[in-house]
Design brief:
Oligomer: heterodimer
Largest interface: A-B, 31 and 35 residues
Order of helices and strands of chain B: EEEHEEHEHHHEHEHEEE
Helix content of chain B: 25-40%
Number of strands of chain A: 21
Largest sheet of chain B: 7 strands, mixed
Largest sheet of chain A: 11 strands, mixed
CATH architecture of chain B: 3-Layer(aba) Sandwich
Distance between the termini of chain A: 34 Å
Number of helices of chain A: 24
Helix content of chain A: 40-55%
CATH topology of chain B: Rossmann fold
Shape of chain B: globular
Distance between the termini of chain B: 20 Å
Shape of chain A: elongated
Structural class of chain A: alpha+beta
Number of domains of chain B: 1
């Protein structure tokens, strides 16, 4: 019989062997988790590729804070290039009494120069690609915006003082930018409407973009011409740069999901190793027999390797299919609407995850099987004459190498891989230690209990090595899922609840000096509370202690403000806050100082227009940023500030019962009202979606944990059946055997559930403290639900995996050699 | 009484036309070649399984009419076991192994009884040891203590010295018969070892599932047809 036939016979004859099934399950879970993540990131990657050139809606874009000079336009036309202009602006829009922040985009004829817009006539209607831009007096709004306003096409909105009718639903714009999650919904209007809206007062926060497209040489020529002419706050964007930005966003998402997938892979690898060891043990008699009958070690080795290969190939097929389903769910969760714009998944990434599964099989399952080569044929005469089962020295290196290589390949980043691996190892070690302590304690307790408790708890203790692995594996999976649930449902809510009642939730920016009083009164009229209006100027930081700032990231333009006394929600931590009539002094926020290294006693030289002025840092402030008051890193003395060209910024809280801000927006069209509450809602929604997507991947982690549990059960099944048969022979009835098992599994489930729930709550608390600076208190309901779900899951799986033990007949005790 | 199983080639009779009786305090050895059915017979006599034909009456109860749980109740009060491979639970200490059987049977003060039983087999100094810390002979003595602790009316022993060297085997056998005599327990013993078998009052030989002969044990040693 050749090795292939032998391997197939071994596989088919033992297809119902528990160890083989567990080996297969471990490989399937690892493949599925990997396939899901790689299929999904491939879709996102291709979506970005497809947009190459579209990400800008042009070949080159000149950006500026003010409308770009006509000569740029003229030069581009002269070079035979197409051009269009865009103005971008965040503004609050009113529909009836309902107001929401929108991302306004005003465009001129020709937009987009690359790519196409997709539109629908109304919500839910089919999308179609369309050339052209909105007619003056009409606009196209993203579906999310229409849903926010609870309206549909045909509605009229006011942009500043200009009424605009929403004619179509905007389904797709090529230049949405790197983020798949825009904070505010998009509204596209004609440039003429924006120009007539009075939103463009002095100092308004509009970003202007000049789009240029055409022949490669023409674009290059234009770039060479425009570059030396660029003024301050003007810049050039090319497709490559825009892609680098979106690439970064993609990379972050990929790594996040990759880390999630990795925990599943690590656990699945543990399950594969456990199952392979067990399978290998169960094959020793067979291998001894084959050898006694004359099979060569080499032939057996080849047959076992092939057997593993068949198993891995089958796992790649099944796991690939599961992964395919999971990536569809992730895509659905992360897409902005049901009609996500991601291209359909393709099978190519499965090649990658498939090779990965082969590596996993080779690293974790092959060594125990290869070790069978060393089985002594004398075993068939007397088992004690066999060599000790285990792995030949060097072979242990394979799983270790595999364990180290896999995360690196998966994450493509050595440092991150080591952090994830190290972090998981520390977490696993903590869980294992806690499990070990809990089991020791349970054994001590069992000495004072009844027979069934003692039998059950002693069983747990006897298999404590396995038990610790099972508890750790399950604990990790459950903890990850519970933590995401905590973040999704409670952490953000509690954080917002922890903010003081008068925390500002709106900003008004771009208030001109002569408008401050009017705006303040109108805000108070509308019911706004805790209104704070503060001056703001933009200046250039030229020198620190006589030297140019060493780091370009914080050199150049900085926003400054001035005040005659320490602002609320600020605390001086070093030095002394300047007196109202002081000159040449400056106060820095601690956070900015830590970032830049500028500290107490340093001298800073600023430039505003043609004017230069110098000041010395005389105090450092700790700022409560979460108060959402207007706060500045750099505070000048009033005498220095008032001489600068400036505008004002207001923060306030708008209680639910307050009236609409329509009067404010319409009275002063140049100011921009920013609804922080709505932004926080949107951020919360994004976190919710990302958490849910990660939960899909962490689900595989949990399944991997369950496979570890079942593989360990499988490995101890014979032992358990023997014990059950013994106590049956001694007169125990079904109920007692069942109770013993329930107690053993109940204790394990209890420990795993307590560790997972406690670990998730503790991690949530740490997250809250470190990131959000408040004391998170997990709700009893969530903890109880998490605990019960974990408990039932573990005890249920243990029960299912142990059914055959319950059916053991006592006569077995006379049959087994022991 | 007979016992058969369904095998791929058809019905397989393992025990055929067995008829046997044993009185209180009597000792019986069942001997026979491997595969002759002696272990199956022991299992059936002890109520670990039910005969497929005929019936077995154990301590006044007809086993055929009892389900597994009812037979378990019968065993825990009236039956003791000693096995070839000792079958102590590795996760429990010597004392806990003996206590477990007493607790299953619902005895009062299981700890005191277990201490007494271990004292009788000379293991008072090994109470907190786990089976892996005990020699084979000591493990079998724990098993004997476990078997006698509940003062069963009948004790079943399956090759009780089979896994022990000759000297240890003899001392374990001495202990077994000594306790048997002291407690007045009936003893059914399955063994290959004719020397051990002959220490019993009666020896039955089984061949191919049938009892083929009765020999006198300790008293004479002659066989009868």
């Amino acid at each position: 019989m050749n090795a292939t036939t032998l391997s197939l016979k071994l596989l088919t004859r033992q297809s119902r062997s528990g160890a083989l099934i567990m080996l297969f399950a471990g490989l399937v879970v690892a493949t599925a988790a990997l396939a899901a993540v790689s299929l999904f990131t491939d879709r996102v990657g291709r979506a970005l590729e497809r947009q190459a050139g579209e990400v800008l809606a042009a070949d080159l874009v000149v950006t500026g804070r003010e409308r770009l000079p006509d000569e740029y336009l003229d030069k581009a036309s002269e070079l035979g290039l197409e051009t269009a202009e865009i103005a971008l602006l965040s503004t609050v829009l009113f529909v009836g009494e309902e107001s929401h922040l929108v991302d306004l985009k005003a465009v001129t004829e020709g937009y987009p120069l690359r790519g196409q817009l997709k539109l629908a006539d109304r919500l839910g209607a089919p999308e179609e690609a369309l050339a052209g831009i909105p007619e003056p007096g009409t606009g196209w709004m993203a579906a999310r915006g229409l849903r926010l306003f609870e309206t549909d096409t045909g509605v009229q909105v006011d942009i500043g003082r200009r009424p605009v009718t929403i004619e179509r639903v905007l389904a797709w714009e090529p230049d949405r930018g790197g983020s798949r999650f825009m904070l505010a919904p998009r509204l596209i209007i004609h440039m003429d409407d924006l120009l007539a809206s009075e939103l463009l007062g002095p100092g308004s926060r509009v970003r202007w973009r000049l789009l240029v497209a055409g022949s490669e040489s023409g674009v290059a020529e234009f770039r060479r011409w425009v570059e030396p002419r660029l003024e301050e706050r003007q810049d050039i964007e090319t497709v490559a740069e825009a892609e680098a930005d979106t690439g970064r966003a993609l990379e972050q998402a990929r790594r996040f999901l990759g880390v999630a997938a990795l925990t599943a892979v690590i656990l699945a690898a543990a399950a594969v190793l456990l199952a392979a060891l067990r399978f290998s043990r169960s094959q020793r008699d067979l291998v001894a027999l084959l050898k006694a009958f004359g099979a060569e070690g080499r032939q057996i080795l080849l047959a076992l390797t092939l057997l593993l290969l068949w198993l891995a190939l089958a796992a790649i097929a099944v796991g690939g299919l599961l992964g395919f389903g999971a990536q569809a769910i992730i895509g659905q969760i992360l897409a902005d609407g049901p009609a996500g714009e991601l291209p359909p998944a393709r099978l190519l990434p499965l090649l990658g995850s498939g090779s990965f599964t082969l590596l996993l099989a080779a690293g974790f399952a092959l060594p125990p099987l290869v070790a069978l080569r060393g089985v002594a044929p004398m075993r068939i005469l007397n088992r004690s004459l066999d060599t000790r089962p285990g792995l030949a020295g060097g072979l242990w290196l394979l799983p270790i190498l595999g364990a180290l290589t896999i995360p690196v390949l998966q994450l493509g980043n050595l440092r991150l891989a080591m952090i994830v691996l190290g972090g998981s190892a520390v977490l696993a070690a903590l869980l294992a230690l806690a499990a070990w302590l809990a089991m020791g304690l349970s054994r001590q307790l069992s000495k004072r209990t009844r027979a069934d408790w003692r039998f059950g708890l002693a069983g747990l203790h006897r298999r404590r090595g396995q038990g610790i692995i099972q508890i750790t594996a399950l604990g990790l999976g459950l903890m990850a899922l519970l933590l995401l649930m905590i973040v999704r449902t409670e952490l953000l809510d509690q954080w917002r609840g922890s903010l003081p009642a008068d925390t500002a939730d709106h900003f008004v920016v771009n208030i001109q000096p002569d408008q401050t009083e009017g705006v303040r009164e109108a805000l108070i009229e509308a019911g706004a509370q805790n209104v704070q209006v503060r001056p703001m100027a933009t200046v250039n930081l030229i020198e620190v202690n006589g030297e140019p700032p060493p780091d370009h990231r914080w050199a150049g333009q900085v926003n400054v403000s001035w005040i005659d006394r320490l602002p609320p929600a600020n605390r001086v931590v070093e030095g002394e806050f300047f007196a109202p009539d002081a000159t040449g002094e400056i106060s820095l926020a601690k956070r900015w100082s830590e970032r830049t290294g500028v500290g107490l006693g340093d001298t800073m030289l600023f430039e505003a227009g043609s004017r230069r002025f110098e000041a010395t840092v005389t105090s450092m402030r700790e700022v409560e940023w979460e108060s959402f008051n207007v706060n500045f890193f750099i505070l000048l003395t009033p005498s220095a500030g008032e001489a600068l060209p400036h505008q004002f910024i207001a923060s306030f809280r708008l209680p639910e019962e307050a009236g609409p801000l329509r009067a404010v927006q319409q009275g002063w069209p140049n100011v921009s009202i920013i609804d922080i509450g709505a932004l926080l809602d949107r951020i919360g929604e994004i976190i919710d979606r990302v958490s849910r997507a990660a939960q899909v991947v962490f689900f595989f982690t949990l399944v991997a944990g369950l496979v570890v549990l079942l593989a360990a059960l499988e490995a101890t099944r014979d032992e358990r059946r023997q014990e059950a048969a013994l106590i049956r022979a001694l007169g125990a009835d079904d109920a007692m055997v069942r109770r013993g098992l329930l107690i053993e599994y109940g204790a394990m489930a209890f420990i795993a559930a307590v560790l997972a729930t406690g670990g998730a709550a503790l991690t949530g608390w740490l997250l809250a403290r470190e990131l959000f600076e408040f004391a998170y208190q997990p709700s009893g309901l969530l903890l109880v639900t998490g605990f019960l779900a974990s408990f039932v899951l573990v005890i249920g799986s243990g029960w299912l995996g142990n059914r055959s033990v319950l059916r053991t007949s006592p006569i077995r005790i006379l049959r087994a050699g022991g | 009484m007979g016992f058969s199983v369904d095998a791929p080639g058809g019905r397989l009779d393992i025990l055929k036309d067995i008829s046997l009786d044993l009185n209180g305090g009597e000792t019986l050895a069942i001997v026979g070649a491997s595969g002759s059915g002696k272990t199956t017979l022991l299992g059936l006599l002890a109520g670990l399984d039910r005969p497929t034909s005929g019936d077995i009456r154990l301590i006044g109860a007809e086993l055929k009419s009892l389900d597994e749980n009812a037979r378990a109740r019968l065993r825990k009060r009236h039956v003791g076991f000693v096995f070839q491979s000792f079958h102590l639970l590795p996760s429990l200490t010597a004392l806990e192994n003996v206590m477990l059987a007493l607790e299953i049977a619902g005895f009062d003060k299981p700890r005191e009884r277990a201490l007494g039983a271990l004292d009788q087999v000379g293991l008072s100094h090994r109470l907190e040891h786990y089976p892996r810390q005990l020699s084979g002979g000591e493990q079998q003595r724990v098993a004997i203590a476990r078997a006698f602790a509940g003062e069963p009316e009948i004790l079943f022993a399956d090759e009780p010295t089979g896994n022990l060297d000759q000297r240890t085997g003899e001392s374990v056998a001495d202990l077994l018969f000594e306790l048997n005599e002291r407690h007045g327990t009936a003893l059914v013993l399955v063994t290959h070892d004719m020397r051990l078998a002959r220490r019993c009052g009666r020896v039955e030989e089984i061949e191919d599932g049938r009892l083929v002969g009765r020999r006198n044990g300790a008293v004479a040693g002659a066989s009868s047809a």
